[in-house]
Design a protein that fits this description.
Largest sheet: none
Radius of gyration: 22 Å
Structural class: mainly alpha
């Protein structure tokens, strides 16, 4: 699936998935729509970064457990 490249494409994609938004989308300017999507993208990347940070922390914990000297 190609990513939408402009506000018109974004509106078409949103309407194809949620036809009930037609009236609401008509009230939103292209600039506001694009700003909203930028915010959503930034939030999604922040969440993904937090997930990756947690995975990295867990891998570090496992590595320390595997490679730390064990007293017998």
């Amino acid at each position: 699936m190609d990513m939408p490249k402009n506000a018109e494409d974004i509106r078409a994609l949103l309407l194809s998935q949620h036809p009930d938004l037609k009236d609401d989308l008509a009230k939103i300017s292209d600039l506001d729509l694009l700003q909203c999507l930028i915010c959503a993208y930034e939030c999604a990347t922040d969440i993904k970064q937090a997930d990756l940070t947690e995975i990295e922390r867990r891998l570090d914990d496992v590595a320390m457990a595997l490679f730390s000297p064990v007293s017998h």
